[in-house]
Amino acid sequence: MMWNWLVSSLAVGATIVLYDGSPFHPNQNAMWQMAQDLGITVFGTGAKFIDSCRVAGLTPGKDFDLSPLRAILSTGSPLVEENFDYVYKDIKKDVLLASISGGTDIVSCFALGNPAQPVYRGELQCRGLGMDVHSYDDSGERVIGEQGELVCTSPFPSMPIYFWNDPHGEKYRNAYFSVSPGVWTHGDYITVNDHGGMKIFGRSDATLNPGGVRIGTAEIYRVVEAMPEVADSLVVGQKWEDDERVILFVKLNEGSKLTKEFIERIRKSIRSECSPRHVPSVVLPTKDVPYTINGKKVEIAVKKIIRGNEVLNRDALANPESLDLYRHLPELEKKNES
Asked: What number of other Cβ atoms are within 10 A of residue 35's Cβ?
């Protein structure tokens, strides 16, 4: 999708830049050096890149001339509050930071940035043009200020109208309209607030459900990945004794250890900054976290692995070998009823 967006900029006479490869090669400041050298005005990147810059302690605003830069667009995963702070403190104060979200299938955004509106910490600013987006609760009612399913209740200009090799439209309807007939259900878990901004908490099919209470995974990531010992993390739900429990995997930075004391500190932080429902029942170390080729964490595949199921679309992963790290973990197999 982002390739389509980038190329379409040529239609308005813009000069476009595409970087292919590791954004940290040959050094951690490679992208910011490029932004300075080419006078980039709109810098599109992923939330993970911004977070990695923050964790590495980079100060692009101090080390480079970013005066032409007018907007930073972030996508791929939710941009947490701390990274909004980082951008405005260490990259540029007078820049439009736009966290955006949509999908390859719609070649568009359901929620995105707007230079005419204020930026709120941790929020996507507004709905996209032509997007009748709302949050639905479990009963299919619109809610404001509460977490629910991202839905689009009217047709929109870039909406796909059929799938190839689906002559009767069954796959198409099952993909988008099986939850609420006639209403596009995109599969994200969101909150729409009273001024039209949105927060995204992760994929709704990866939503945790301990004690029957739905929880977005992004809330836990925000707390855990702010800890200096943690390089990355992954959280999934596991069926356990007629309920679901929260399992947290943490990839540690070099020199850090997952001691009992550190696990307790993780749990206390999650309890304090989220809620008791968010606290993981099990915290385990991992050497790697699986990602898709376009940089999204793969909770559902890991959930299948710990259930003992196979993952068929491994080719969609950037590091498919990482899935093997989650097989046959004894801590998750005792009494496992799934």
From this structure: 22
